[in-house]
Amino acid sequence: MNSKLLPGAETAIKQCLNIQNSDKLLIITDNETYEVGSALLETAKKYSQTVLMIKIEDFTSRPVQELTYDFEQTIRSFSPTASIYAAQGHQGELHVFRTPLIRLLTKELGCRHAHMIGITQELMLDGMSKDFNLMAQITDRVYNKVTAAEEITAQDEFGTNITFTLDPQNLKWVKDNGIIGKGEMHNLPAGELFTVPYTADGSVVAWELGDWMCKEYDELNSPIKIEIADGMITSATPMNTGDTKSTEASGVFMNYVSQFDNGKRVGELGLGTLVGLNKFVGNLLQDEKFPGLHVAFGHPFAEETGADWDCPSHIDVITKRATITIVKSDGTKETIMKSGIYSDEILKG
After folding, report:
1. Tell me: the pLDDT tens digits for 26-66?
2. Which of 81, 97, 127 is the last residue of a domain?
3. Radius of gyration (Cα) for the chain, nearest Å?
4. Cis peptide leading into 63, omega within 30 of 0?
5. Segments of the chain assigned E as strands
6. In whole angstroms, what separates CA 222 from the centre of its chain?
7. Where among 98, 127, 156 does a domain terminate?
8. What is the pLDDT of residues 292-336, one digit of tens each?
9. Which residues form the domain of 253?
């Protein structure tokens, strides 16, 4: 076990989950992420006498096709009060495995759940070592701004130019500040807030693609321009047709989102709030927390946002150096981010 991972594990176990001796903590890991799982296990044993770590491959092969009976019964028999998913994601697992698993842990068992999908040792040393207290303060300040908005616009130097129309009465903003309560799930590293827009129109220039595509293509050398009308993708094309990787990724992306009802629908408008990150690392779990704009298509996390539709897929895309302006119901405008940097009011309070 790599001892350098322990500070990041400490953040997850104590600061985010607030593990106490009375807790029963379940850690779910896999072959690829076992070192991270082991660091979480060692740290957790400092605070609780009841910790169980299970490995996905001990129950089924990847990609996982379903939440198997043995896997589910192991979890139910342990009856955890808190849980961590510290493992990788494979194509097709979201709808048939991870979503039912999260529902079991949070809704049925009431766990405080830390979801570290795609976590790596690099992220434990980087994002998990940042000042989560400062991040939580910034997340709250951004939340207080955007919940008053009926429209958000975003532009960047690369060609992003999009308007999101919001429905603040029916579609909620969700804070992912790393402080996890009973029956809640937060991604770690934390640091974002998100909602489902009522609709969206314009262009998003994407430098990184989410879910299983992140591992396949990581950060793109040249971006993909995604056109959106009435909240739906109309096209996705490489901005440099000579870039083989970007060209292939745009085709795979469009083919994937086209497979599902609502797969091309904007299911998330997200704003990263984990200040202190210096660069993209090619891992969406952390890169979507980079201060800026990310957009996802498909699954809208309806149980949290209030969306009245669903989709089995969820693919994020990440922009760079966005300028973000909110528009309130009275027409008042406020730029809360300029070229990827939050306003002084948000950063300093």
Report:
1. 999 999 999 999 999 999 999 999 999 999 999 999 999 99
2. 127
3. 19
4. yes
5. 24-29, 50-55, 82-85, 112-115, 149-155, 161-165, 174-176, 185-187, 192-195, 199-206, 208-209, 224-229, 232-238, 266-272, 292-298, 314-318, 323-328, 333-338, 341-342
6. 23
7. 127
8. 999 999 999 998 999 999 999 999 999 999 999 999 989 999 999
9. 130-348
